[in-house]
Design goal:
By secondary structure, this protein is mostly helical. It contains 4 helices and no strands. 8% of the residues are buried.
């Protein structure tokens, strides 16, 4: 923490870099499955787990979430 600002420290070893890469890819895949009008609303979530929870909460039982799930499960 420098002057009250939290700085993200880059991963140091290969395993951490790989885990970060996989997490970013999963998040990107989830965002691509959404329609354009919803992408900005969900762009604030920084990890795939919280993003998927927000999507499920927002579209519970909706046709759009079923379409997203179908796309992701292909």
């Amino acid at each position: 923490i420098i002057d009250g600002v939290v700085q993200v420290i880059a991963p140091t070893n290969a395993e951490q870099r790989l885990a970060k890469k996989i997490e970013l890819k999963a998040r990107g895949t989830l965002l691509m499955a959404l329609l354009d009008k919803h992408q900005l609303k969900f762009n604030i979530y920084k990890d795939a787990k919280s993003l998927m929870e927000a999507i499920e909460k927002s579209f519970r039982g909706n046709k759009e979430i079923k379409k997203v799930q179908k796309t992701l499960l292909k």
